[in-house]
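[AMINO ACID CHAIN]
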Amino acid sequence: MHYVARELPLLYAEKHAAETRLRKIEELIAKTRILIDDLNEDLCRELSGGSSLAAAGKAIVEEFGRRLNAVYSEGRKKIREFLELHYRINKASSRGLFSLLEEAGILRYQVDLSDDDKGTPLVYYAPGEFSYVTDPGVIYHLEGWWEIST
């Protein structure tokens, strides 16, 4: 009992120190997130000629709606072509702007899986790697849509 009475204040002190460190780490993460958001906004303005991320998202929504039904690569191409025309930017800038919008969560691709397929593990093959002879069975063509949020 004497041991517990002696160690308990030390444990409380360690707990308090750990909580203080945790609060400081959380503050640092929050400040870092704000700096990253500011940098992303600056980069968006640079790539688009002055538009914010929200404005770019709104322009895409006005063009395509909140949902663009297209496979990944086709939708990506349509959105990038729109960005090039809308902002009068080159392909490299549209790639950067698209990536930034995707990273910010404004553009998100959703895979459409039936309820039967949701529990099935997905296997991805490199181009030319798949063989009907060695891998017979159902071939999944993963279709989906692009969600656009502002």
Notes: The helical segments are 2-48, 53-64, 72-87, 91-103. The two ends are 60 Å apart (CA to CA).
